[in-house]
Every structure is written in C-alpha cells, then in structure tokens.
Amino acid sequence: MLVPVNLKLRWFAIYAGFGLLLSLIITAVLTQVATRQIEEQVGTSLAHVAEQMAHQLEEGMFERLRDLQTAAKLIEVPETGAQQERLEQLIQALYSSYENYAWLGITSADGEVLISSNNVLEGADVSARPWFQGAMQNPYFIGDVHGALLLESILNPDGAEPLRFVDVAVPLKRPDGSIWGVLGSHLNWAWVQELERVAKRGLLDLPAAEIIIVSSEGQVLLGPKVNDDGRLQLRLSEAVARQGHGLQQWPDGAEYVVGLAVTRERQVYKGPEWQVWVREPATEAFKPVRELRWQAVWIGLAVALCFAGIGWLSAGRIARPYADISSKLEHEVASRTEELRRTNEKLERLATTDSLTGLLNRRALIKQAKQLRKRADRHGQDIAVVMIDLDNFKKVNDSYGHSVGDKVLKKLAKLAGKLVREVDIVARSGGEEFTLVLDGSDEKNAKAVTQRLAKQLREAEFSADGETFTVTLSAGVASWSSDQEFEIVLDKADELLYEAKEKGRDCVVAAFESESNTKEAD
Fold this sequence. Notes:
Enzyme class: transferase
Distance between the termini: 117 Å
Membrane topology: Multi-pass membrane protein
Largest sheet: 6 strands, antiparallel
Strand content: 15-25%
Pfam family, one: dCache_1
GO molecular function: diguanylate cyclase activity
Helix content: 40-55%
GO cellular component, one term: plasma membrane
C-alpha cells in the first residue's frame, strides 16, 4: 500500500525540523566549547609572552643597576691627575661594555659633571635632574622613560626620531659613608625593541599579536598608538583582572584576547611599574571557530535533508553524520589545542633556558634553588652557592671574536655539567657569569669542586686564527643557611667573586677565608 503524499511530507517536515534543530544545538555547543578553549589557550600563550617580556625588562634594569653599583665600588674621589685618567678609562670601558648606554658620567656632590663618556656634558650642571637628586637621597635611582633634554641636540643632531632614555644612577661614597658625587647613566630605550623582537619569536603561531608597554602613568612606551594623547586607560575585564588574560575591550571599541604582566618589585631594588600587554584581535583569535561553525552549519543542513529522507526508515543511521561532525570539530579543536600546547612548551623553554649553553637562566635558577632549599631543610643538609666569572673574557671577544667567546662559554658549561651531580644546579646567570648551587656541600667541599673546575678550564686549550690560548676563572663560595634569602647569598658570593678578582684572578675565595670576613671578626 502506497503511503499518501501528505503523510510523506509530514514525516519529511518532522524529521527535517528535528535534524536541523539537533544540528544547530550541536553546532552551538561545540563552537561554544571551542571558543572557551581557544580563548584560554591563546590568552595563556599571550600571558606567557607578557610575563617573559616583563621579566626581561626587570633583568635588563637590574643588570644595569648592578653594573653601576659594581663600578661605584671602584670609584674614588679623583684627587690626582692619575686618578682622573683612571676614572676616565673606567667610565669609557663601562660605556663600551653595553651598546645601549647613551651616556655615562660622574658628578660632584654639587651636580657638576666631572667625567663622562666621550666627554659629553663635562662641566654641565645636572643638579636639577631627577636622577641626580634621586641618587643623592637614596641608595639608587631608577627612573621612568623620558625624552632627552640636555643630550638631544648632541646625540641626535639630524633631528630624527626623538631620543628616549631610562635613567639609572647610584651615589658615590667615601670610606666614611659620606656622598661625594653620583654615577649616572642614560639607557637608550631602543634596547626594548630588541627584547620585543625576541619575545615575538614565541608568537609565530599568532602573527597578528602585538606587544604594548605602558608606563606607570599610562603612557604608551612601545607599540601601536591607541589614541591621540598616547595614553592607555582601560577598565580591566573581570577575566583579565582575575587571571591576567582573557577578552578585553580596547578604547577603539574592538575586542582583543590579551595577556597582561606588570614588572615587579625585587627584594634588592624597585624599578618602574611598567605594564606589558600582548594582544591579538578577537576576530583573528576566533577565526578557526568561525570556520568550524560554518562547516558545521553546512554539514548540519545536509544531514538534516538526509535525516528527513531516511531517518524514518533507519533510526540507527541518523546519528552517524552527527558523529562525523562531532569528530571533525573535536579533531580541529584538539589540533588547535596541541599547537597551542607546543607554543607554551616553547615559551617555557625560552623563559627558563639559556639559548647558547643550554643551562638554566637566572629566572629558572632562582626557582629551582628555592626548591632545593626546601628539600635540604627537610634532610638537614648544607648548601653552598658558587659565583663564577671568566677572567678577561672581554679580551677574548675583542681579540678572537664573539664566536670564539661563545665556544669558551659552552666549554665552561660542559665542564661544569660533567663535574657536578644531578642534584646540583648549574646556571648561566649573566654574560660570562655562572652559578653553581651544590646540595649537601659546605664551603670547603664547594671550594674544592670549584678549584677542580678551574683546573680543568685552565688546562683546556682554545685556538683561533692560528693562535692557541687558555682561559681562567675566578669564583666566590658562600654557604646558604635556611634563614637566608637566596638573593642575599648570591650577593655574598658575588662579593667574594670580586675579592678573588682583586687578588689577581684565577682563584677561588670562600667565605670562611675571605678578607672581608676576617675584618668583620676583628
């Protein structure tokens, strides 16, 4: 018996409507899940880059401050011509050691520039400058980004893009503690552009992403212009305020997936509170979701037609197309999630590993050292910290080139890695500085280990341009008690390292035998 046409139409309409409704529900649910996952994954990736950039800003400012503090220990009041000449050489050497120093100078307590890099501003009165006043009143001064005033016409005579500086300054003291002057520096803000290029290597999967740095007053220091006055004023979304990443509406009304990090105050210094934003337009971030949605809609329409035609004959075949839709959507989401996971792993490696030697960097060193401290406290074990610095390493780079210098750094890293145990920590904490954290070791044992490392390095021969040369190291060894902060122990080991330098280099000085400890005991 033939089925009436109107009954067929009813069945067709019922099954078609049911199939279409079901496909729309599945599409809505899956795309909503995909949207949340991609927002979380992209936001996390952007937040990682923002944190990495903020950390590099902190490291850069801290290294420059430490350069000046170290140099200040070597500077005495120039009372003779020989002392004046030695300080001029010291300032010029420090200026040449870092390409982004725009200016370095020594002033008197009245603000007169006595000695400066390339003799720029010598004799000028800088007593009204914030960096001079800040250093005269505090242990150090780190300023925010500002335009060049006295130096603009000297360093930028062609009137190109205006110069912007960050000031770092420290007081110069006599042995009795009185201040006789200031050691000040202007850092060219262009150094941050190099940090930006490095950070963007972690954004290869997010080509539309941008990095924006904002000062504590809301002024945009790096990145695209957001409005006419160059200031960024945002009311943080709930997600960004809570977890540091998420959807955020910008002043132009557009939505972005953003990651936010703020430069933090360290235990040993406080710098400017810069905000680091990394953003990607929401339209770009959610493009895969839109593509999945349209695919699901078209497939859903086709399935609805098939569902209407054969659903009443074979209920078992109805769900199969939807399973295909679900599988494809899940596959796309899983693929995107896997790509973002690999990006996160890559960012983690960049954030914790020194790219040249493969050792831990300073950030990872501090984290792992504190974990080692907790483990040692549970077992009642000693810990020793060793700061190592290659002697006259700048001469190696100047004489044979940076590629040869890199080989020396890699050799020292390899020797140190073989010499210590798996439970110990080896890190490259600076340019030619390395740090060892030795678990279960006192100062004498740590000194013996370091002396073996020094001997192995001394016996290693390097060759370049037909010449053979050797390299030595100096080191300071300090014990780390459970009631000390790791950064304090690093500073102590660093002081002992400089004591080793003063003794003529190529030696290891431990705290129990150092001259500074002997003087304190007296």
